[in-house]
Amino acid sequence: MLESNHRLGRVLKDGLSSVDGIHAVRGIGLWIGLDLEDAPAVTKELQTLGVLVNAAGSQTIRIAPPFIVTESQILEFISLLGQAIRKVAS
Q1: Which residues, in sequence order, are bridge partners of residue 61?
Q2: Does the structure show a pLDDT above 80 at 4?
Q3: Which CATH fold topology does 2-89 show?
Q4: Nearest one of 21, 15, 22 to 65, comparing CA atoms
Q5: I need a surface site. Which of 2, 22, 74, 86 has the fewest CB within 10 A?
C-alpha cells in the first residue's frame, strides 16, 4: 500500500503542476499543499462540485485523499480543480 500511495502521490503532484493558476505544489505521498490565488474561493467552488479540500490561509489548499483513492479519482480531481480555478479567475 505504501508503494501505491507513493506512486499516486507522484501522479497527483505531476498533474497539479500542470494546472494553470497553481504557483507551487509540495508534500509527501498523498498529503499535498498547493499555492494559488484566492484559496478560499477555489475551496468553495470545489465544494459546489462535490470535492472537499481545506483552505489553509488565503493562498494555500491542503489535499489529503484517503489511501484507497484510485488514479482515476485523482485525475478527476485535477480536472475539477482546474475548472474551479478558471471559474474563480473569471
Answers
A1: 34, 55
A2: no
A3: Aspartate Aminotransferase, domain 1 (3.90.1150)
A4: 15
A5: 2
C-alpha cell at 16: 497539479
Encode pLDDT of 34-80 as tens digits.
999 999 999 999 999 999 999 999 999 999 999 899 999 999 999 99
Which residues partner with 63 through β-bridges?
32
Domain map (residue ranges) of the chain: 2-89
Could you read off the pLDDT of 57-69 as tens digits, one per residue? 999 999 999 989 9
DSSP per-residue string spanning the chain: -HHHHHHHHHHHHHHHHTSTTEEEEEEETTEEEEEES-HHHHHHHHHHTT---EE-SSSEEEE---TT--HHHHHHHHHHHHHHHHHHH-
Residue 47 has which C-alpha cell? 465544494
Rounded Cα–Cα distance for residues 6 and 86 (Å): 29
Reported residue count of the chain is 90
- Asked whether 78 and 19 are in contact (CB, 8 A), the reply is yes
